[in-house]
Amino acid sequence: MSWTPSPSRFANKTGYATAPAMGYDAPMCYRFIIAAVLLVCLMSLSFADTLAGGLFTITYDAKDAQNASRALAVLEAAVREFGDCLPAGDGSIEVVIAGTLRSFGQQTHHFAAGMVSGIARSAQSRIIVKSPRIREAGGDFQGTLRHELVHILLYRNTDVDRLPKWLNEGIAMSLANEYHWASPIRVARMFLSGRVIAYAQLDRAFMAPGGEMEFGDAYAQALSMTRHMRNELGEDTFWKVVLGTKDLGFLEAMRQYAGMTPAAFWDGYARSLWWIALIGGCASGSFLGPAWIILVVAYIRRRGKNRKILKQWAVEEALDDETFHWEDVMDDPEGWKREDDGEEEVWTHGSR
Asked: Which of the four pLDDT bands, split at 50, 70 and 90, describes residue 92?
């Protein structure tokens, strides 16, 4: 059956029919067919194979078949391990193993491809990680998978808008067993060099990292703070606080389950930095190095300065007790009278 265009639509002034212009007069279904074919071609070029198991569907380049099998085993074991505190539920999770830096960068456009090894799109239950073939030497592929999985589990079990970003990242690193010794060593160096990030600024360091150094510092400090919180609160209370953010703000969850405020927690953590620095120094083997001499000197200076401040406060409080206040005179009806101290008044020359 042939198709003849209607003269009323395609005929020109001379009465001869003209062919429809592609992209303008072609039926809309043609456009969808062409777009679908192009999309399938692009997907076949980038990711050729998939592997499914349990909750997970892994998409990967043909060269990463072994890495895909390894990733599936790691993720399924992690779901079982985290099930008591962060149940995964029944929702499926998509995992993409990017075989090139270009493909990884295209899907993680918020961060430079060289700065991160994995990203979790928690709302879409999607994990994108670099293939071990394009990671730095010694990179922890297993740790990255576990880390990004924890972000999705936290999204499913808490309100991540209420959970502080530093705690979200700290839990992910803690459960992923990442940076076991690197974190205290780095925090020790941050402490000695005055780079410890203030509590009010810490979440911003994750949202808009200004460079590799700031990005790494924020992660190291977040892990250190999370470990400190787990140790101080205990596992049961810690997870009650975390899961409590499903319905409560972080401040309310801390007060209700831990009996303290985030400010009180930060004060305790700040006081523990000397101990963290000591552990970091021992772990790095630099306990007797120049940095630790500086640490001791800084401690002595800080202690002496604090004592001076306390003495000054004591002096100021004593002076405040002897200060003349007009309010006292106004409230005392006899305050205008001059007290007789038993001494004869001495008049100077020219006075009356």
From this structure: very high
Sheet holding 126-130, edge to edge: 49-53, 56-60, 93-98, 126-130, 118-121
Residues 164 and 89 in one domain: no
In-domain check, residue 257: yes
Residue 170: name the closest of 199, 135, 211 by CA.
199
Q: What's the number of domains the chain is made of?
A: 2
For residue 282, what pLDDT band results from cuts at 50, 70 and 90? low
Determine, yes or no, domain membership for 340.
Answer: no
Domain that holds residue 149: 21-157
Q: Are 57 and 92 in contact (CB under 8 A)?
A: yes
Q: Measured in whole angstroms, how far is the alpha carbon of residue 258 from the centre of its chain?
A: 21
Under 8 Å between Cβ of 94 and 126: yes
pTM above 0.85, yes or no: no
Q: Does residue 154 register a pLDDT over 60?
A: yes
Q: Does residue 14 lie within any of the structural domains?
A: no
pLDDT digits (tens, 9 = 90+) for 312-321: 656 665 555 5
> What DSSP line would sit under 29-96, residue for residue?
HHHHHHHHHHHHHHHHHH--EEEEETTEEEEE-GGGHHHHHHHHHHHHHHHHHHTTTS---S--EEEE
